[in-house]
User: Which sequence fits this backbone?
């Protein structure tokens, strides 16, 4: 069960890094398509540059 909490917290944090609500994680409940979305959107694409409504860019300031 701890692995489930770690997955959930990490995925929500990554969704916020991409500028999406944490509720987008519910799409992973759709078999196959949900996993593909999770892999591409949260696993491959880079996060938003600069701050978004969820906080500052964790990589620092943009020059």
Assistant:
């Amino acid at each position: 069960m701890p692995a489930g909490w770690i997955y959930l917290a990490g995925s929500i944090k990554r969704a916020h890094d991409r500028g999406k609500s944490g509720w987008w994680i519910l799409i992973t409940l759709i078999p196959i398509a949900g996993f593909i979305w999770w892999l591409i959107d949260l696993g491959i694409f880079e996060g938003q540059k600069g701050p978004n409504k969820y906080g500052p860019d964790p990589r620092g300031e943009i020059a």
In short: The chain has a mean pLDDT of 84. The CA atoms of residues 43 and 63 lie 25 Å apart.
